[in-house]
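User: I want to check something. If I give you two sequences, will you return the structure for each one separately, not as a complex?

Assistant: Yes, each is folded on its own. Here is the first sequence with its structure:
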Amino acid sequence: MTGTLQGEQGEPLRLLADGMLGKLARWLRLLGYDTAYENDAADHELARRARAEGRILLTRDRELSARRGLRALLIHSETLEEQVREVQEALGPPPNSPLSRCPVCNTDLEPVSPSELVGRLPPYVLRTQHRFRRCSGCGRVYWPGTHLDSMRRQIDKFFALPSDGPDGPGQAGPVK
């Protein structure tokens, strides 16, 4: 399965990050990967959910990643940039465009008109911004604020990550 965006039965690429990978899960969502996150689930619950939802489990737990019948990617690195590189090398680029998913709850973002947001956002934001997207899952509203440039620079860095070769620290393990 390595290097493809499709799962074993042709389903779209869907990921599940365990509690050790919360920061990675958030950035994978921002990059465009469908990434569920379980902060406090026990190993058996993570394995059950990954199997039931057809998700690839991302974990730093070697024992959990080796469970039979579980599609898992063992993440070796402790640094975010290298973790993203491991995912990209093992699974390919994200299937969705960057900034298309809610970084908090993983739901697709939908365009929304400023008139629908009157009373929900400060008047200044409504006067100075014209493009808004809302998460239908948690209801959060996003717009291209001042933080967007730094987020885009970080996303560009993730997409420009060089490979260290077959034996380097950036080499991802196989997806089982």
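And separately, the second sequence with its own structure:
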Amino acid sequence: MTTPDPPPHRRRSRVPPALAALLACVACLGLTWAVVVPPWQAPDETAHTAYVQSVAERGALPGGDRPLLSSEQGAAAELANTFQVTGQPLTDPEWSPRIAARRDRLGELARDDGGGGSNPASSNPPLFYLYESLAYRVAGGGDIFSRMLAMRLASVAWLLVTVTAAWLLAGQIFRRDRRLQLVAAAFTGLLPMMTSVASSVNPDAMMIALWTLALWLGTALLRDGGWRTGAGLGLVTGLALVTKPTSYALIAPVLLVLAIAAVRTRARTSTGQAARGLLAGTGALVVPLAAWVIAARLMDRAADTQLAAVAAKANLREFTTYVWQFYLPKLPFQSDYRATHPNFQTLADGLPLYDTWIRTGGAAFGYLEVQFPEPVYWLFAAAALVAVAACILSLRGRRRALDAATAVFFAALVLILLAGLHWTEYRLLQAGGQSFIQGRYLLPVAALGGLVVAQATRLAPAQGRTRFVVHAVILGALAVLQIHSLALVMARYYA
């Protein structure tokens, strides 16, 4: 006697075993990264922690003439030798027995005398820091190191959201092919840079999750055109805008998706239905942003400091020269941008496409000083080329299965993100600043990389075990890379 199928609502609510196993694995790795990396040895974590502490202890955003760090955080950073270790591979953290003896004294120091306007993170909107302040308050009875761990674990929760959203995005693209969904989501969640960044106190953890949700909801909206999906897309976009200014790159692609979905809905149903969907999406987008703008006005602070800084007038020809020489050799009629802007060579020396996107995007931990031997990055570059080539070849004969609007959505998102990063760096270089672009800034679109890898595996025959073996090799390679990345970090800080 066969067992009857469960009701449809029960089938939909059940988490697929592959996704559940992947989430458990990612959660364990996130916890490991959160524990292994010493406090404030993740990018910009000192400033982000100070921002959270200002919100949690003073109920105020950073600003004014206060010191950057509170007495407690400053003493804890000195105790752990934080500033001497940052970016210095030959200097180790302080692990002597005196730390245990002096940690108890940290509780006697002030927590609320920091949060000054010199905080480089103070131009960020407050959503992530409000979220982290909850974890900070939950662990408020412990010392600052305990609160740091609690905040890192709160960031790991967003990593799980990212993996789930990548799974759902792949389900839209590959028609719920569970193996392809697993490969795409595993690539997204098991990248060492992803687990490293998303297990630290950094707004990128929340931003990456919101971007991945936007990718999924935008793709779903182009398929079904439902107003609820449009409202969800608008909401996660609005939340991303009040998480980090980088998310302004989402606005144009999301509005394009809403417009295309409205046109398709109008063709299928009615003008009224299309209008409702468009209004739901744009309204949900505007509400979080408007709330932040109004709150910033009431607090007499700028809501978009970074955006205003990069929106200033610039020489378009010189910007084009900068972008060209970032990727390609100088043309005879061009001026030498490197000669006039020496700081441009900080990260973009040699082969920028390789040095910036492959090396620092593949595995460069701490403040970029913890890296693998050079041949490992050659393997990263070769694997990326193979994946892209196999993806392109696998799409031959499947062109009709690829929705043109979805492809435009993905391409617009990547191109606008890149353009925004380059424009920001160009403006900084013009002002005498340093190059700032790093590979981790492409993590918001890491789920698209997962789609490329999963699509590339479709070049293997579906019959037999060939494709299964390919998938197993990819998952195994990601696991090995994670283990070696953790070993590299542990050797750096504990050997």
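Because they were folded independently, the notes below concern the second chain alone. Residues 253 and 409 are 6 Å apart (CA to CA). The longest helix spans residues 144-173.
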